TrEMBL record:
Protein name as catalogued: Probable fructose-bisphosphate aldolase class 1
Entry's Gene Ontology BP terms: glycolytic process
InterPro entries linked to this entry: Aldolase_TIM (IPR013785), FBA_I (IPR000741)
Pathway stated in the Swiss-Prot or TrEMBL entry: Carbohydrate degradation; glycolysis; D-glyceraldehyde 3-phosphate and glycerone phosphate from D-glucose: step 4/4
Gene name tied to this protein: fda
Family under the similarity heading: Belongs to the class I fructose-bisphosphate aldolase family.
Family annotation (Gene3D superfamilies): Aldolase class I
Reactions the enzyme catalyzes: beta-D-fructose 1,6-bisphosphate = D-glyceraldehyde 3-phosphate + dihydroxyacetone phosphate
NCBIfam families for this protein: FrucBisAld_I (NF033379)
Entries under Pfam families matching the protein: Glycolytic
GO function terms (MF aspect): fructose-bisphosphate aldolase activity
Enzyme class: lyase
Amino acid sequence: MATSTPSTTPASTLSGTAQALVAPGKGILAADESLPTMVKRLARIGVESTEDTRRSYRELLFTTPGLADTVSGVILFDETMRQRSSTGAFLPEILAGAGILPGIKVDAGTVPLAGAPGELVTQGLDGLRERFAEYAALGARFAKWRAVLRVGPLLPSSACVEANAHALARYAALAQDAGLVPIVEPEVLMDGSHGTERCAEVTRQVLRQVYAELARQHVDLASTLLKPSMVLPGTTSPEAEQVSDDEVAARTIAVLRDTVPASVPGVVFLSGGQSPQQATARLDALNRLGVHQPWQLSFSFGRALQAPVLDAWRGEPENVAPAQAVLAERARLTGAARRGCYERTEEPAVPEPLGPGAGG
């Protein structure tokens, strides 16, 4: 597992914040679902998405006892950044009071990339400097911007890779100017029939371009985090049912060693369309194999942490405590994987994977 000497850098500095987010044994809860995504998530458990139900669910997550033991930061959505809890406290204040750093998703989603059929580029740079100033005043300490890259025989195109890398770098420079740590998320999507080797090839291409653009924009890498997808076969590939956790870890670390500078404090993997058990087991394999790597190997999981909680809650007030117990246990297991000491035998029955395009 990845180890490091505890940092003496004050958490009030950008590099100190970045190191605090990937402190040994800890990682990030991605709770930055947009309003349309929340409609889908809540509909799955038979709950209507209203401001009150969304607030109740977020409050459930953020007030879970002991969450700060394994969660260093939470990525929020714009609405959540401004919401008050049932007690009248702002939700970011509840997190900060528990010793958890509030962060904010700032991209505005994807749109078709002109001249590149089937490919996407992330928008949201217009007015971002002003939005960053507002979010910093609301208590945000870090930010996230997600780019998505589709894999195919001829995808992604160089134009798509370059456009998304440039946007990520512009965002990161603006975040640091505003005093926020940027999480850079170039997600290579699992959707498709590509094999593991093709995923590794595309991930290597994307990360090389991202770090070239970050250098051009004079981004301080010591005050950034990388949020990549693991190197995985496509969901409809014959390899999808055969690839081992150790192979995923080995291929992922090989790509990172080729592309990610040692000055980056940590890599916080997204869970993508993996089940909670798959994402946790592969994070564990990464930390077992990656003990001598220069970066902390951590997590920024969304649905891999939240899906079991939603199933336990189902919008019922009497289910809040049981749902929080589920989150605490899921976070404990993920924290164990973060240290390379996760035991899959502790898991309940394994459900089906969450499916392609699940995010987080």
